[in-house]
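User: I'm new to structure prediction. If I give you an amino acid sequence, what do you actually give back? Let's try with this one:
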Amino acid sequence: MQEHKDITIYDIAEKLDISPATVSRGLKDHPAIKKETKKRIKEMAAKLGYQNNTFASNLRSRKTNTIGIIIPRINSAFMSSVIAGVEHVVNSKGYNLIISQSQEDYDKEIASATTMFNSRVDGLLVSLASNTDRIQHFESLLRKKIPVIFFDRVFSHPDCTNIVIDNVQAGYDAVMHLIDQGCKRIMYVGGSLKRNVYADRLKGYKLALSDKGIAFSDKYVHTDVLSEQTGIDAARKILEMHPRPDGVFAASDSSAVACMQTLQEAGIRVPHDVAVVGFNNDPISWIARPRLTTVNYPGNEMGQIAATTLINAIHKSPASSLTTLVLKHELIIRDSSNRSALK
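Assistant: Good question. You get back a string of structure tokens that encode the predicted 3D arrangement of the chain. For your 343 residues, that looks like this:
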């Protein structure tokens, strides 16, 4: 089979009997080229099947107009909303987006970082895998002055901005609400304590107990790679405890709902016997019955701010020099914890 020959600006120039330089400028909508000439050039380019060599152009400019994002899992309502916010900003600014997921695995995160580096991204957004405990795999980008911004699951680095909510305060607010509803034995269901989000939510849990004079006990802490199964396992643990916990604070909505449903299947009344609070305000929180009390985590807003901050860093804007940006959270009280409504 004969190999297809790529069409160049020289082929277009030959067909139209004009100079290659004129063709090049016409394809770029240069104001010095007449509208009629531009039209003829573009029509001939389409007829011949000309493709602009973006890669070669990017090599000359040392920019690819591409931003990368590495996330733990793509099948997460929160991460989907973050990506939607990121895409809204990067597309409006003329950038393309490459998405990769670590699947909560450190080695896959390393491979994703290498792929992003080799793809010559102009900047990188990262939410870390649950078992990541060092970030040397991002140093190759930083040495090239390619900005890296961490969001949600972050890591302190002098050259990187972190974008988070106040997870300590959010955990405190959730547990204080449960205590106000009469709970005294509260189970914390969370993810890996290597990650700031889960360690900080546990810290808030402990502070709320301390402020109310309730003793902390490890037996009420259940941590794993956070998932629906984690919620189910926590519920089974609760069912075997005597006395049982009378409240649950789960660090994700999916684990909270799984825990709540498993308890209900065993005859436990929610919120009468066990009051439940989740985290993220995912769609499942309003579909569940009873509807789930949760902490609203502004994913779309976080994505937009992360992307805007990254683009500012790419363009070396002074606005990009902040080391930490903290977004607001909100406790949304619904039926799964609201014992006051039962009176």
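You can read the tokens as a compact description of the fold. Here is one thing that stands out. The chain is about 45% helix and 15% strand.
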